[in-house]
Design a protein that fits this description.
Chain lengths: ~150, ~140
């Protein structure tokens, strides 16, 4: 299968994902924060978004479980099971703090950018800068001289 | 806790969620990949040959969705209350945290939970708890 077919499928998946976020109201940071505000006027909508997404997603992952290749013939690239480590939990906690400050996570940030939101673009630029910070420290770890670098996690 | 029934939108939440699930399904059934947006975006910070175009295409799809929507109908309400400095701080935390944590709401929260991955369930519990705690501190302790 030509790579352009995969590129097109990738665009389609991103596009449908973006439409889903808009329909669900999850491209609206105020609505996301209303879900995270348990002690305030709580809007449980985000829980139902997750439920709807997981119901369909679980069916898809069950479908590919016994396959080695996709319908287009690509190999399945699913993460192999790994242990729950400090790096996973600390990283997720840091992400959660940022999510709680803004009400925006990476998917909605891209939708907000497309919607022309200046605040969305500022957030997205900071996410990309944060990715750069991560790569900087990962690269330093990779080229560290001497014995193999110790992984703290 | 009091439920804001006037703000609660169960039908559009479930339908929108199912559409997100359909996007996840499309991506794994056709391309064999996890629709984890922080990872797709983050991979562009260290581009590898042959690993760039599908990432850009997925990101472009997300950006194009509101543009296409806007051609046909008015966009749904978008309200960003956070200030620019708060958004920059939040974005940095999200950019760093999702990379160390190996995923965000899409990769861990939707895909990982759909696969019943213990790592993703742990990550989802962690970022949800941190999100709840952050909003509680910001709204009820710092500026009640």
């Amino acid at each position: 299968m030509k790579s352009s077919v995969y590129t097109a499928a990738s665009f389609a998946a991103g596009f449908v994902f973006g439409l889903g976020l808009l329909v669900a109201g999850m491209a609206n940071p105020a609505k996301v924060l209303a879900f995270l505000d348990l002690a305030g006027a709580w809007d449980p909508s985000l829980a139902l978004v997750m439920a709807g997404a997981v119901a369909v997603g679980a069916a898809a992952f069950a479908f590919v479980k016994k396959r080695t290749h996709t319908l287009l013939g690509a190999p399945l690239l699913l993460p192999s099971p790994r242990s729950i480590d400090t790096r996973l939990i600390l990283g997720s906690l840091v992400f959660g703090v940022g999510w709680g400050l803004a009400g925006i996570c990476p998917g909605p940030a891209l939708v907000l950018a497309g919607a022309g939101s200046a605040k969305g673009l500022a957030f997205l630029a900071a996410v990309i800068a944060g990715n750069g910070v991560f790569e900087f420290f990962e690269k330093r770890k990779r080229v560290a001289p001497g014995p193999a670098p110790m992984r703290s996690s | 806790m009091s439920i804001a029934w006037n703000a609660f939108t169960p039908a559009s939440a479930l339908i929108g969620g199912a559409i997100i699930g359909a996007a996840v399904a499309l991506f794994v059934v056709l391309n064999g990949r996890i629709a984890g947006i922080s990872g797709i975006l983050g991979g562009l910070a260290r581009p590898q040959a042959g690993d760039v175009s599908w990432r850009i295409a997925f990101v472009a799809g997300l950006v194009a969705a509101p543009l296409a929507w806007g051609l046909l109908a008015a966009l749904p309400e978008i309200r960003v209350d956070a200030s620019f400095p708060a958004l920059v701080a939040a974005g940095l935390l999200v950019g760093v945290g999702t990379r160390y944590g190996g995923g965000c709401t899409s990769g861990h929260g939707v895909c990982g939970v759909s696969r019943a991955s213990p790592r993703s369930i742990a990550a989802t519990v962690a970022f949800m708890a941190a999100g709840f705690a952050t909003v509680f501190v910001a709204r009820h302790l710092i500026s009640p």
